[in-house]
Each structure stands twice: as C-alpha cells, then as structure tokens.
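Sample intake — Ribosomal RNA small subunit methyltransferase B
Collected from: Maliponia aquimaris
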Amino acid sequence: MTPAARVEAAIRILDGIAAGHPAEQLLTTWGRTARYAGSKDRAAVRDHVFDALRCWRSAAAMGGGESGRARMLGLLRLQGQDTAALFSGEGHGPASLTEAEQAAGHASEGAEAWDLPDWLAAQFRDSLGPAAEATALALRARADVFLRVNTLKATLAEARARLADEGIETEPHPLSPTALRVTGGARAIARSAAYAEGLVDLQDAASQAVVDMLPLSSGLRVLDYCAGGGGKALAMAARMGTGRVDAHDAAPKRMADLTARAARAGAAIRTLSSPRGPYELVLCDVPCSGSGAWRRAPEGKWRLTEARLAEVQALQARILDDAAALVAPGGTLAYATCSVLQGENAAQIAGFVRRRPQWRVLSQRQFLPAEGGDGFFAAIMGC
Ligand SMILES: C[S@@+](CC[C@H](N)C(=O)[O-])C[C@H]1O[C@@H](n2cnc3c(N)ncnc32)[C@H](O)[C@@H]1O
C-alpha cells in the first residue's frame, strides 16, 4: 500500500469509531478484507488509528471537522507531515484537499489541547493539581513497550543478552529492578525464544513497581483477588521464589490462559473460583477507568462517562470490603488501579479506612505516565 492508501484506510476506520464501533473490531474486519495489505501496512494503519484516538479532539480542531477525513488531516498536520502529498487523490489515497479544507483548522487550547472530554479535564485538575497538564499531554503519545524479567528463569543481564541475540534491544528502567524498556525490535518479542521460554513477559514498568511495593516472601499465603490475565499474579510468584499464589477473578474466563502462562514462567499459580482464606496478603487489582493506561487504550478516554465512573467506584469499594474479609489477622490488604483519578485512588482508600477503622494505610503511591510507565496507584494496608 502507498502511504496515502494507508491514510485512506485509517479514515474509513475512524468514521466507524465515530459511529460507535470498537477500534479493534474495525481493524480486524479491515484486515480480513484487505488481503493486499502486508504486515507493515497493517501496523501503519493501526498506528494512524491509535494516534488519532489519542489526539481525537486536537486532531479534529486542527483538521477543521469531526469526520474521519478531517481528523486524519488534523493528525497529519499535528505530526508535521506533508498533507498535500498524502491527500492528492493518487495511489488509492484520499481525494485532494479542497480550498475550504486547506483554510480550515486551528490549534487547540484547554481540554481540547489536553485531548480529554471537558468533564475529565476537570477531574484531572482536581486529582492531580499541577501535574494534570503533563499527565494529560503524556497520554497523547504512544506508550513504550516494557518487559518484566522473570527472575525464576533469568537475571536481568541474562535476559538482556538472550533478547539481544534475537535482535531485541532493551535497557533497564528506574521504575522497577525487573523492568526492561524495549528500545528496538519490539515486533520480534512475541515470536522470540526468550519469550517462549518464559524468561520475559510483557508488563508495564509501573505495574511491576506496584508488585515491588508488596511485602512478599516465600511461604506466605497470597491471593490475587482480581487476577484477570494474571500479569500481577505472575510477578508476585516470581518475587516469592518458591511460594504459590492463588488467583481469583469474578469472570473466571479472564484467567483462561493463566495456567499455561504460569507453566511457561515456571511459576506456581492455582486458579480458584471461590477463595476461602485466610490469606496473609490479598491484592485487589480492581477494575477501573484505565485512565493511567490511555496511551495504550485511548478509546477509553472518549467512551468513559460520569455514570460509568461512579459505577466502577462503587464496585471498587465492594471489592475492597469483600477482599478484606479474606485477610488473616495481622495480614496485608493491597489495592491497585491503573488510574490517575483521585476518586478511584486515595479517596477510595480514605473511604475504606473510614468504613473499617481497624485498617490503617501503611503506604500509598501514585505513579504518573511522566515517570515512563502507565499511571498506577497502589495502597498497602494492615490490620
Ligand atoms: C484490572 S483487571 C486485573 C488485571 C490483572 N491483575 C493483571 O495484572 O493482569 C481487573 C479484574 O477484576 C475482575 N473483577 C471485576 N469485578 C470483580 C469482583 N467483584 N471480584 C473479583 N474480580 C473482579 C475483572 O474481571 C478483571 O479481570
């Protein structure tokens, strides 16, 4: 495909997103029909679509309209690309720019420049104060790819060397002693032997840093109460060395791959449908707005509503109450979100200790995207 044809494909997908269809679904459908598209074409179209989702408002402003065509035009202008060459009507690309399109478009200000809906920009300001702007702007850019070195199988140096042999370049990252930032060859990770043999796993650096905060040691009875795909359960098992982690999720299907992932990693993880306790440590990595991870999943910015956020916050409080009942006397309850919003983070924890005064907060930390990883929050509580 020509660069212009890739732009045309992205325009059609952006129109589908504006009509309410999920981006992943539209990309899959396009991929099935576009048999002429090679892997580089698919990656380029995907990048256009996700770049536009990250900059949905500012791209529309810069392109002078809300159609897929206007947003793509605005995005390319923001990126400093030659829009006349890409909108020339040639090479299966979009039709030439009209005079009106050439004259339209403006630079953004306020919530538009932050690429957030107005109500969320206000939440960012209330939650993050002086860090709000930098956080919003960081979420407009692509995320780095991070690996977690599985210390059950390799040291950091061994993993880096094995990855380098397969053309994957990495560097350590200050957020976690197990984190490697991928600086080259990211597309080769999934088919690399280092990955297949369980030396490394894909996991954001701040997600790893959350696990680093947990008081883990081998022999502890540990439960990951909201295990999902098991990223944190696997990291916990690695930290514990010989210990075992119990994993639970209200939607057990989400743990479907966990047994195979644990086997690959050499980690002892048992999935349970109704954990009984007591446990010395229970982690609740709760469902959340995902606002800290909007670089990776930018559609969330535009699909989240105030009503949905309130529902999620109520669910987080219920999960905390349920999980607390599984902790042994003197044990630890840990809470994590990939959110930067106060109502899901410090305010949620303040509400919990008000409801359950026997619990006290031992530590809590907000990780922001400006530190390199996703935005995460973690609180460790003891009773
Ligand atoms: C943020 S995700 C977990 C991600 C996972 N810990 C990881 O690191 O890969 C939150 C999970 O909580 C689960 N969940 C939702 N409601 C729950 C509940 N009431 N009890 C336990 N898990 C719940 C969801 O199904 C989802 O898999």
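Post-analysis note: Residues 225-232, 249-251, 254, 285-287, 315, 319 surround S-adenosylmethionine (CB under 6 Å).
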